[in-house]
Amino acid sequence: MSKRLRYQVAVSLDGFIAGPNGEYDWIVSDPSIDFGALYKQFDTVVVGRKTYEVMTAQGRHGAMPGLEVIVFSRSLAPATYPGVRIVNDDPREVVATLKKKPGRDIWLFGGGTLFRSLLDAGLVDSVEVAVMPVLIGAGIPLVQPGTITKLVFADEKTLPASGIVVLSYLVAGSKDAPAPIVYVKGRKGMAKKKGSRGRRASRTASKKKGATRMR
Predict the structure, then answer these.
(1) Structure pTM?
(2) 101-138: per-residue pLDDT in tens?
(3) 100 and 87 in one domain?
C-alpha cells in the first residue's frame, strides 16, 4: 500500500480550522485522545506558510517530535532546521513524490489553501476532522472554495466527555483503504462492556423464552 495523504485537523462546528489570526485556543481538549498513538501513524507533516507561522510560536522552528515537517511557501526563503524543511517547490510535485516512498502516512496539517491545491490535484486520500463543540464565528475555513469533491464515510467516534465528534471520510476515487480511528483511548473497554451487557441480555431473553415454552 502506498503512503496516504490525510487531511487531519480540528474544526469548529461552523467550519473553521483557526481563528482570523490563526488562533486555536478554542480547541477543546479530551483526555481520551491518545496523541502519541496519533503521531505514530505518520512520518511526514506538510503545512502551508500561515499554519507554519502559528507552529513557530511553540518554538523549535515548528518541529514535531519524530516527524519531518515540510513547509510550502512562496515568500519564505528555503531553509533547513532540525526536523523542518522550508521549500518553494510546487506542493503537488513534492507530495506526489513523497507518496511513492516507503514509510508511514503523510499528515496534511494545514491549511485550507494547501488542502484545496492538493485535493484538486487528486493527491488527498482522506479527510479526518475532529469537530469541536464550539462556534467561533469567523476564521480560516476548512477548505477554500473550489469544485465539488465526493467523500465516502469511513469511521466515527463520539467523545461524550467533551462533545467532540471525530469523523473520517475517504476521498471518492482513492485507491487506498481509509485509516480507522484508533487513537481514542478506552473505546475497547467500552465496547467490551457493551458486549457483556448484550450477552447478559441475550441469556436473560433465552431463559424467559424457555420458561414460556415450559408453561
Answers:
(1) 0.83
(2) 999 999 999 888 999 999 999 999 999 999 999 999 99
(3) yes
Task: Write out 113-128 in H/E/C secondary structure.
Answer: HHHHHHHHCCCCCEEE
CATH number of the structural domain spanning residue 150: 3.40.430.10
Residue 40 CB partners (closer than 8 Å, separation 6+)? 66, 104
Shared domain for 10 and 38, answered yes or no, is yes
**What is the spatial distance between Cα 128 and Cα 106, in angstroms, rounded to a whole number?**
13
For residue 59, what are the domain limits? 5-184
Q: Considering its fold, how many domains does the chain have in total?
A: 2
Assess whether 97 and 193 both reside in one domain: no
Same domain? 125 vs 209: no
pLDDT confidence tier of residue 1, bands split at 50, 70 and 90: low
